[in-house]
Amino acid sequence: LEAILNMIKNAVLIKQGAEARVYTAPFLTRTAIIKERFPKTYRHPILDNKLTTRRVIQEARCLFKCYRSGVDTPILYFVDIENNAIYMELVKGKILKELINEIREWSSSEHGEQLTTKIGIALSKMHTADVIHGDLTTSNLLLRESNNSLVVIDFGLSYISSLPEDKAVDLYVLEKTFLSTHPNLEAMFTAILETYKSNYKASKDVLSKLAEVRLRGRKRSMVG
């Protein structure tokens, strides 16, 4: 245990976000990702630690629940409650956002078809397990280098919910990413939804809610 906790001293900072710092560090025979949530100075220290710890546990729980449900996610190595850090597998692969930007005509290619199927199946498994990702973007989906499996990463905003509304919002976030970052590939998102629909038994209620969420989004943008 002490050896694991000492790893953070030799870790290399690769990303600093609003909620956490992300490091890489040697872990036994491989390289691990360490995600460390830091204190929020504007909150009372005791309350802050309580909320941060709860958030770390929730992220680890959602990550593990997805993994157990057959979704490819980074493997969880260790959860350090004392230091509010999660140690997990460093997945080697290409981020979906980069892949899409590199290759044109995704929707009409066989590769694109395989990809939309993989995404739709992963989302259906995740929602069947009642895990809401909270930040579904093409930056949080990647293809594993070793076997081209689709990996869902960054469960920092994830939570457990069986509500169709929450699952619809998850899908809406991904749709918004396609509309803003990949505007010519709306057909790709439609194909993802088709796979999701045929693989998730409770999809009817979710897709019905998605239509409502889209409507609210349009009204908000019109007012804005």
TrEMBL record:
SUPFAM superfamilies: Protein kinase-like (PK-like) (SSF56112). It catalyses: L-threonyl-[protein] + ATP = O-phospho-L-threonyl-[protein] + ADP + H(+); L-seryl-[protein] + ATP = O-phospho-L-seryl-[protein] + ADP + H(+). It is found in: Nucleus. It comes from the Eukaryota. Pfam families: Pkinase. Its EC number is 2.7.11.1. Keywords: ATP-binding, Hydrolase, Kinase, Nucleotide-binding, Nucleus, Phosphoprotein, Serine/threonine-protein kinase, Transferase, tRNA processing. Residues 8-224 form the Protein kinase domain. GO terms for cellular component: cytosol; EKC/KEOPS complex; nucleus. One of its GO terms (biological process) is tRNA threonylcarbamoyladenosine metabolic process. InterPro entries: Bud32, Kinase-like_dom_sf, Prot_kinase_dom, Tyr_kinase_AS. GO terms for molecular function: ATP binding; hydrolase activity; protein serine/threonine kinase activity. Belongs to the protein kinase superfamily. BUD32 family. Component of the EKC/KEOPS complex that is required for the formation of a threonylcarbamoyl group on adenosine at position 37 (t(6)A37) in tRNAs that read codons beginning with adenine. The complex is probably involved in the transfer of the threonylcarbamoyl moiety of threonylcarbamoyl-AMP (TC-AMP) to the N6 group of A37. BUD32 has ATPase activity in the context of the EKC/KEOPS complex and likely plays a supporting role to the catalytic subunit KAE1. The EKC/KEOPS complex also promotes both telomere uncapping and telomere elongation. This is non-specific serine/threonine protein kinase.
